[in-house]
Amino acid sequence: MDNVLNLDISQLRELLDKGELTSEELTTTYLDRIKSVDEKVHAYVTLTEEDAIKQAKKADEIIRKGEAAPLTGIPLGIKDVICTEGIPTTCSSKMLENFRPPFDATVIEKFKAQGAVMTGKLNMDEFAMGSSTENSAFFPTKNPWDLDRIPGGSSGGSAAAVAARMCVASLGSDTGGSIRQPASHCGVVGLKPTYGLVSRYGLVAFASSLDQIGPLTRSVKDAAIILESIAGHDQRDSTSLPMSVPAFSKACTQGMKGMKVGVPKEYFIEGLQKDVETAIQGALKAMEDMGAEIVDISLPHTEYAIATYYIIATAEASSNLSRYDGVKYGFRAENFSNLMEMYKETRAQGFGMEVKRRIMLGTYCLSAGYYDAFYKKASQVRTLIIEDFKNAFKKCDVIAAPVAPTTAFKIGEKVHDPLQMYLSDIFTIPVNLAGIPGMSVPCGFDSEGLPVGMQIMAAHLQEETLFKAAYSLEKGLGLDIQWPELT
User: Fold this and answer.
1) What is the pLDDT of residue 1?
2) Which of 304, 372, 444, 455 has the fewest CB atoms within 10 Å, i.e. is most exposed?
C-alpha cells in the first residue's frame, strides 16, 4: 500500500471511485506513515486519528453511493491557525494551548461538505510570525530533505507534512510568504491566492489586510483542485470577494506559446545564492523553450517592501492580538494581585519572544504622534508597490522570480538575528502587499540536494493564467522528485 503515498488527488480519486482503494485503507496508510516518521520531522501538533477514521468510513459510504466530490476521502492536514470545532487550535502558542474553538472555519466547513478526511493540525511559527517554524512554543519542525535544516515558515508543518508524505495535501496561511517560502524549501507547490478569494472566517488573525489561506500540495493540479474547493464568497468575511469560482483545474493545460513572462531585475540581487539563481535561470529557459517570451520588467519600489510590511503587519498584529488578555479564553497567568497585573503577566508568559517583538513594534507604530510617520507612510508606499505590479502586468502575463534568496538554512542559524530572518521574505512580501496571487513551483535542487522553488505571480484574480504557467513549467521541467523516505 505504500505506493499510494506517491499518488496525487486525481490518481487517488480514480482508485477510490473505482473501488480499488477505500478511504479507510488510504487514511490508515497515511496515519501509519505519520506514526513512523513524524517523530523525526515534528510536523503535527495534534493528530486526530479517531476522527480521521470516522471521516474515512463516512467518505466510503458517500463514494459507494456515487456521490463523491473531488476531495471525498482524501487525507488532508490543517495549519494550526485555522479553527476546527472541538479540536485544539493552538496557533503553536502557549496562549492558546488548550483552546478548542466552538466553530469551524469556512474552509473547514467546505472540506467537511466534500467529505475530506482531516489527519490533524500542523505546527507553525507562533501566531504565524516567523520564517522557520522555530518560533513554535512547542517544538521546531524539521525539513524532511535534511533534518538539520528549517522547513521554512510560518506554514512549516504544512509544507513538511506534504513533503514527508504525511498527508496528501495541506492548508497553510500566507501573510508575507508563509505558504510560498516553506513550499520552496520543502520542494512542494504552495499557492497564495488573490486576497479575498478564500474566506478568512475562522483564520486566527495576524495581519488582516495581508492574511490569506491557500494550499500546499505535491503537484500544481492538486493546488487547483483544492483552491476550487475552498474559494468563493462568504458573507461572514467582509473582505471576501463576491464572485463565482472558476474551474481552476481546467486551467491546468500545457503550453506557454505566446505567453509573456516578466523577470524583475530587483529580484536578482546581491546575496542571492548561486544555486538558486542557476535553478531559476534553468526554469526561465524551460519556459522560453515552450514558446514563452521572457521580458525584462522593473518593480522599482521592491526595496521598500520589507520596511512597509513590518510596519503594516506589526501594527495590525498589535491590534488583533490585544484580545488575548486572559479574560474570555486562552491562557491566564496564575499569580496576580489586580486586573492590570493579570493582563501584564498573562501576555508576558503567554506570548513568545517574536510575537512580543512584533506587538511592541506595531504598538509603537500606532502610538500617538507616530501614526502618520509610520503606518500612514507605509500605506502610501504600499499603494506605490500595487502600482508597480499594475504597470508590470501591462507588459507581461505572469512574473517569474525566486521565492527565497537561499535554500533552507540550518536550524538555529538565524534565530538570534531577526533582521536576517526577516530578509528571507524579501521576494514574497510584495505579493501580499499588492494582494495578487503567487505560487511556488519546484524548479530544481542546489548542490546539497535541497529544493529550490520558482515564484510565479499573476495579476489580481488571474489565477487561471497562473495555473497555466505553473502547470506548463512543472510538465516542461519534468522533475522526477524522489520524496524523502525518512524510514
Assistant:
1) 57
2) 372
Q: 62: helix, coil or strand?
A: helix
Distance in angstroms (rounded) separating the CA atoms of residues 346 and 333: 5
Cα-Cα-Cα-Cα torsion 64, 65, 70, 73, nearest 10 degrees, comes to -40
CA distance linking residue 162 with residue 419, whole number of Å: 29
Q: What are the DSSP calls for 399-421, one per residue?
A: EEEESSSSSPPBTTSSTT-HHHH
- The span from the CA of 475 to the CA of 473, in Å, is 5
Q: Would you say 32 and 2 are in contact if contact means Cβ atoms under 8 Å apart?
A: no
Residues of the chain with pLDDT under 50: none
C-alpha to C-alpha distance for 300 and 384, rounded to whole angstroms:
9
Grid cell listed for 11: 490518481
Give residue 416's pLDDT: 84
One DSSP character per residue, 196-265 reads TSB--TTBPPSSTTT-EEEEEESSHHHHHHHHHHHBS--TTSTT----PPP-GGGG-----TT-EEEEEG
Per-residue confidence (pLDDT) for residue 422, from 0 to 100: 83
Q: CA 116 to CA 110: how far, in whole Å? A: 9
**Res 330: pLDDT:** 95
Question: Among all residues, which ones are annotated catalytic?
Answer: 79, 154, 178
CB atoms within 10 A of CB 437: 27
Kindly give, in sequence order, each residue whose CB lies less than 8 Å from that of residue 133, ignoring residues fewer than 6 positions away: 123, 124, 125, 140, 141, 150, 151, 152, 153, 154, 156, 157, 160, 182
pLDDT at 153: 94
Sheet bearing 169-174, strands edge to edge? 44-47, 117-122, 75-79, 169-174, 212-217, 189-192, 438-445, 451-458, 398-402, 260-264, 293-297
pLDDT at position 105: 98
What pLDDT score was predicted for residue 419?
79
Alpha carbons 101 and 104: distance in angstroms, whole number: 7
Q: Give the 3-state secondary structure percentages of the chain, helix then strand then coil, rounded to 5.
A: 45, 15, 40
Q: What's residue 187's pLDDT? A: 98
Given a contact cutoff of 8 angstroms between Cβ atoms, the answer to whether 384 and 301 are in contact is yes
Report the distance separating Cα 262 and Cα 286, nearest Å.
14
How many domains is the chain partitioned into structurally?
1
Q: What is the DSSP annotation of 135-177?
A: --SS----BTTBTTB---SSSHHHHHHHHTTSSSEEEEEESSS
Cα-trace Rg, the chain? 21
CB burial of residue 132 (10 Å; 0-12, 13-18, 19+): buried
Residue entry with cell 496561511? 173
- As a whole number of angstroms, the distance between CA 486 and CA 141 comes to 14
**DSSP helix/strand/coil, 481:** coil
Question: What CA–CA distance (Å, rounded) separates 57 from 115?
Answer: 10
pLDDT at 423: 82
Domain that holds residue 16: 1-487
